[in-house]
Amino acid sequence: MAEDSGTGSYLLGDSPAEIRHLAAQAEVYSDVTVELFDLIGVEPGSAAIDVGCGVMGVLDELCARIGEGGTVVGLDREPRLLEFGRQLAEERHLPVEFVEADATATGLSDGTFDFVHARSLLMNVQNPLEILAEMARIARPGGVLAVQEPDAASWTCDPPHPAWEILRGEIVSAYRRTGKDLNIGRRIGRMLRELGVESVQMRPTLRITHPGEYFHTFLLTIANLVREVIIGSGELTGDEFAVYAQSLSTHLREPGTITCQPIMWQAFGRMPTG
User: Fold this and answer.
1) Which of 21, 28, 53, 205 sits CB 3.0–4.6 Å from 32 for a disulfide?
2) Domain definitions of the chain by residue range
3) What pLDDT shows up at residue 28?
């Protein structure tokens, strides 16, 4: 995300590493997204939008549910991410309309969508309530708002390792210093209720990883993406960062080492009809 509307720059950027991360996220979290859509009952022929879709978001799953009789839109403000999203959609023959716009000012008409969704978007902005308000505006009366956001409370590894705790703490602090919240997942149900969304439900999901799996080294991936913010804070020197990263990389390759990823909180409810 570029600097815009008080949202703040996207901390993870649009580098090849972040593009790979977003593509992997879409694939790895597909199963819990399918479960969420089952609970909600996303209907064929409906109009749906994934706000802050990045490279692919949940567009695969939406197209599979909604079919050709409906409308699937992916919205993001990062041109480079949308470019890769369009390429993937074309390769997979997905009928997706991509919109380049800020999530706080989409330019879309009131009450356009039956289903409005965002995943791992609110954690990356300084103004999550403004984005939720815009999502509510473009949802039709009786339409569904759904949000998936992480919470770092569960982010750990076993056996424990000092480098894990140090780098995890620095990542959480990097978000906090830039006005963002890596623990926002626990709050999203309350935020929807305060917005007036009705019948809000929440569901936590967890993922355990093992050596060789992509998300097993997720903490290192994120640490490297925010490395300059960490170094710039003065808490770690570049050399110290490198030592911790190498030590943790070695530890995570050890047979039997597991990680528990951040809780992915899912919250959803319906817009009032009156």
Assistant:
1) 205
2) 16-270
3) 78
